[in-house]
Amino acid sequence: MKIVGYQTGRHDVSYCILENGIPIIHEELERLIRIKEPSGDGLKMYMDRIGKIDEVNYFVNGNPGFQGIKQHEETINTLKELDNKNIPNITIGHHKSHAANAFFSSNFNEALIFTIDGGGVEENGTSTALTVWQGKDNKIKPIDIIPITTLNLGSPWRLYTGKIFGLSSGYPKGNQSGTVMALACVGDPNKYFDDFYKGFKVGGGGHNPVTLNNCKKYKPIAEKSEQDKFNVASSLQKATEVVTKEFMQKYIDQYNPTNICLSGGVSLNCLMTGKMLEWWPNINFYTDPVPYDGGLCLGASRYLWHNILDNPRIKWEDNTTSYLGPKYSKEDIYKALN
Hints:
This protein is α/β, with parallel strands linked by helices. Helix content is 41%, strand content 21%. Helix 8 packs antiparallel against helix 9.
């Protein structure tokens, strides 16, 4: 059985093919055009790259609402063709897709799953940047879906990266939050901790008044000297860690998990995820190999394969191979060389 998953949105556009539950192709648009975080249409990308419909059993979209992206006319025609041929086209929630990719790419039979990012929409229209799930065998189920206005860690990071540090926070150079994370290693984490902690805790989404005020306040401080920049970054990093630990702790206390899976763009913060091994030394941790939105197509496909179609779990020996693009012919190679 073949499932085509796709992610259409403002960034991390991608598609994948699952064959009997195993990814055989996974491609991201930015890897092909060499421009970071372009908006685009994942279904059109599949049709441009592969273009086969009749041999596909299901299509599945991992990003409801297309995140504000207008569908191409070609995509609208493709959807009509799918409908005419009775090929299902299913939509799976943004964070549900993240959670599914984390759990079903792991070898855990049971796990508590946390997804943390800058925001996404579920099937019912709920916007969230933080969710909690329970995974068992071939199913995941939601425990808590936090409204995006209650707590958002990813959106402030994108904002701070651009407004305070003057780094790229999206198209065309990508999100350089990882650079801010690196700067944090040599700063004083306590110097400006309170303001960044409050910015996360006050709620109101990523662009709340405290966060916006922090941008104005700390931009000139970060520009004063290299060490000042380090101190601002380190304070932001510590605030992120403290807020995340506080949030996760109540679910860990309640469910007492042996295993935890992580997904969503904020789980790329390896400084923080590394410390989780110290915070909770008796818990096994697993991070989704593609935790950012480029993995939504994989997660949606895996949710369909396991949760909806009720297929058994797959035990992985290699679940992170990067060699999932199409083969290149001699003609392709000569064309590129010329």
